[in-house]
Design a protein that fits this description.
490 residues, eight-stranded mixed β-sheet, disordered N terminus
Amino acid sequence: MLRRALPLGLGTGLLGRGLGTHREGSTLDWHGKVSEIKKKIQSILPGGAWSPLYDTSHLPPEHSDVVIVGGGVLGLSVAYWLKRLEKQQGAIRVLVVERDHTYSQASTALSVGGMRQQFSLPENIQLSLFSVEFLRNINEYLAVVDDPPLDLQFNPSGYLFLASEEGATIMENNVKVQRQEGAKVCLMSPEQLQKKFPWINTEGVALASYGLENEGWFDPWCLLQGLRRKVQSMGVLFCHGEVTRFISSSNHMETASGEKVTLKRIHEVHVKVDRSQEYQPVECAIVVNAAGAWSGRVAELAGIGKGPSGTLQGTKLPVEPRKRYVYLWHCPQGPGLEAPLVADPSGAYFRREGLGNNYLGGCSPAELCPQEEEPDPGNLEVDHDFFQEKVWPPLARRVPAFETLKVRSAWAGYYDYNTFDQNGVVGPHPLVVNMYFATGFSGHGLQQAPAVGRAVAEVMLEGRFQTINLSPFLFSRFYLGEKTQEHCII
């Protein structure tokens, strides 16, 4: 077990004893002494050549008020709002643990960067309305002295949802809710749709909804780096490593109905650090589970779901990794600069990428395939046949110009997919009382991260949601069987 205090111990312990204070004059066997010291140091350090300055910068601290598991935009947003809302500067020590320090597999970096208010739930609409305000005024929130301003390259081209006859009534109801919450969205008939976007084939379309304001797409990598840069300037600590264990204390209680429950409190997080097979224990007061697609596994480490079936103790966090493909294609005759992000009733979608008639798109396999045909999340390899068989046909039917498209590249990323109701999980666990969640957004976590981070920080610092009431997103709904169903999932 490796502790950060070790190098200090070497300075006052081994090194002090090895060199001592006595002198041996000119006959001092200096090299022999140093050789002996090296051997002693090597005997207590992990394998490898000895270095005169043992680098501990990659280690987490031994103590932190809050440990955030996951350094994507959701975890970083929680860190940002904790520091911004703290009563006194420097009052809260925050540590962010991220195992993928290159972010090569992070959902944030692999996202298409969409921003919309077209959801069916008021809470999701409110989250997105605040987040778009945050993004459009990004430098008022994330500016760092002497650093260049951020440019998210926000493209306000809107979202265009298409509905079949079967989905038209749902779309009308959704738009009514969106307008009540302050979103600028209009409904379009097939004739109006054809007139505004003549490149669309309206066959099978009964109704369309179009975001007139504050919808489009942006650069997710820029947001990630901007948040990271800002929270570092606010004193947030980072560690590249993986959380492997939680040390908890338990308190057994009985509910009014006679059910026996065990309340847990996490006291220590074990972090397996890079460049070492050892772990570093971090004592903490609060843990935030913002591990995205892997948050279900992190919850299991805390004992969540490991109880009798049908009980709160046996209720799992229903979040798992789902692999989603994104394809980049070129089409010289494709839609022009006025093209929004188009979501087809089939589940296929696309948007422009840059100015050179390039487009990004894909579809959610769950919309088109049986559950057993979900792609293997064990890797991020791309299935190019999936585009030919499942994505291209509905796209070419909807946009005839895409008959001649040519795929140029593709990649895959992960959704933190909530299998219960495809909605976020926000706030504390009812039994592991100091674990908080910011996960499970099933593909819309990036665009809502600024508001979700604020909500989690509020409930941690004040004991309740203040700006947006996200009670429908609490963990307890999984035990109660109360779905918070979102109908607008892409």
